[in-house]
Amino acid sequence: MPKKVELEGGGRAPKGHFVVYVGNEMKRFVVPTSYLKNPIFQKLLDKAAEEFGFDNQNGIVLPCDESTFNRVTAFLAKHDS
């Protein structure tokens, strides 16, 4: 069964997941840590590091809009093993 990306209001991410913020509205998403090994997701993280640096106090902010993020995570959910 594919892993699902969840939109959460706050608090800590459950075990095996981490939080990212997406878009101008900084929507919070909880994603599985398995995405960290995927080259597509790694590119997003590289772009985040280039744009925001590693000292960002806002957590992991991905430099893409919400619809792009949803397309990427839908693809990853289908192809994540």
Automatic annotation (TrEMBL):
TM annotation in the entry: none
Name of the molecule in the record: SAUR family protein
GO biological process, one term: response to auxin
Signal peptide residue numbers: none
InterPro entries recorded: SAUR_fam
The family this protein is said to belong to: Belongs to the ARG7 family.
Domain of life: Eukaryota
